[in-house]
Structures are given as structure tokens and as C-alpha cells.
Amino acid sequence: KQEVTQIPAALSVPEGENLVLNCSFTDSAIYNLQWFRQDPGKGLTSLLLIQSSQREQTSGRLNASLDKSSGRSTLYIAASQPGDSATYLCAVPDYKLSFGAGTTVTVRA
Amino acid sequence: NAGVMQNPRHLVRRRGQEARLRCSPMKGHSHVYWYRQLPEEGLKFMVYLQKENIIDESGMPKERFSAEFPKEGPSILRIQQVVRGDSAAYFCASSPSGEGETQYFGPGTRLLVL
């Protein structure tokens, strides 16, 4: 059974600082890994999907890396802004997604 | 190009009533997944359906909960005789096919049981 862990559980940084969010998973036989953003009381927005054959994926200020052998993924957010405040979730599928508990980020203006 | 739609967005029920949650997948998607997010907890898989078939319901409570995805119309998650512990956000996701595909999430239905 896949177990997904996210560290830290919460993070507060001043605006402009880079963010580093960590995700680890126990079963390295994954198809891909997906990062989501969830705003309070809202649904999930897909940020990045890294295929198992990829080592990283980039979209704007977001960069996600994947190391299957060590069971880790890291989401980097450059030059954080107050609008980046949200909970960030990583998830790995067989078909159903196994989610981490999330990292709640607060970017202080 | 509508995304995944869920309704209602908010649902209030008294204990013992039935709750029906609906999910319309994205156009062209034939795979639907339901997840539940309990207060202060992470998202947990409930059930995976394709048209007219339940593929995996391992995450669904054995009693009172059922799901369907008929040939025509939305997927329905049905909770009979709701209890306070059923209060949660229920999310639906869809994908064009099964394994390894990006899942696109709806906005969720927030169920409150009084």
C-alpha cells in the first residue's frame, strides 16, 4: 500500500523567498507524481505532473523534481508571492491517487 | 470546455436523511473517481468507476454508501441515513483513461450533517 508523506506540514515565509516543499512515497513503482494546490474551501488545481521517466517538470515559477529510486519529489516555488498561500498536495497513482496530508504555505507580504 | 462539474456545491442534511452528490466528468472522460476530505484530514480515495461499472470501491464504507456512473448522465454518490461523521468535502475527479493519466478535479460538494 502506497504511503505518501509531506514535510513540513506548514511553512510561513516572507514574500520573495523561495519555497521548498517535500514529498516522499514508499512504493517507487509509480506511473507519475502529481502536485496540486488547494485554496481554503475550494477544490484542487493541478500544478504539475511528472511522468515516472522524467526527473523534473517546470511551469513558470514552479519546478518539481522526481527521484523514484529514493521515493522523493520536491516542489520549488521561486520568488514567492502572497497569492501562493495555499495548501500544496502531492499525489501518486496506481489509478486511484494516494495523497499526502499537504503542506500549508503562508507567504507574508 | 467545461471542467468537472459537481452539484450541489453545499448540502445540508439532518441525521437520517439521504444525500445525493452528482458529478459530471469532463467531456470525453469515461473514468470517474470519488475522494473524501474529512475536516483537518487529507484526501482519501473512495471509489473508481467507468461507465456502468464499479472498478474499485475499496475506499468506500461498506454500509450506507453507494456510487454509480450510468451510461447516460452524471455519476452519483449516494449516502443513506447520514450521520454527523459524514460531514466532509466530497471531490470528484475524471480522466480520459485509467492508469497514469492526469485526474482533473471538480470543485467539491461540502456536506454538513446537522
Topology overview:
The complex is a heterodimer of chains A (109) and B (114).
Chain A: E1 4-7, E2 10-14, E3 19-25, E4 32-38, E5 44-51, E6 56-59, E7 62-67, E8 72-77, E9 86-93, E10 97-99, E11 103-108
Parallel strand pairs in A: 2-11
Antiparallel strand pairs in A: 1-3, 3-8, 4-5, 4-9, 6-7, 7-8, 9-10, 9-11
Chain B: E1 5-7, E2 10-13, E3 19-24, E4 31-37, E5 43-50, E6 53-56, E7 65-68, E8 75-79, E9 88-95, E10 104-105, E11 109-113
Parallel strand pairs in B: 2-11
Antiparallel strand pairs in B: 1-3, 3-8, 4-5, 4-9, 5-6, 7-8, 9-10, 9-11
Structural description of this entry:
The complex is a heterodimer of chains A (109) and B (114). Chain A is mainly β and 109 residues long. Helices cover 0% and strands 59% of the residues of chain A. In chain A, strands 2, 4, 5, 9, 10 and 11 form a six-stranded mixed beta sheet that branches. Chain A has a five-stranded antiparallel beta sheet with strand order 1-3-8-7-6, with no helix packed on it. Chain A is globular and about 40 Å long. Chain B has no helices and eleven strands. In chain B, strands 2, 4, 5, 6, 9, 10 and 11 form a seven-stranded mixed beta sheet that branches. Chain B has a four-stranded antiparallel beta sheet with strand order 1-3-8-7, with no helix packed on it. With 114 residues, chain B is mainly beta. Chain B starts with a strand and ends with a strand. Classes of the chains: A mainly beta (109), B mainly beta (114).
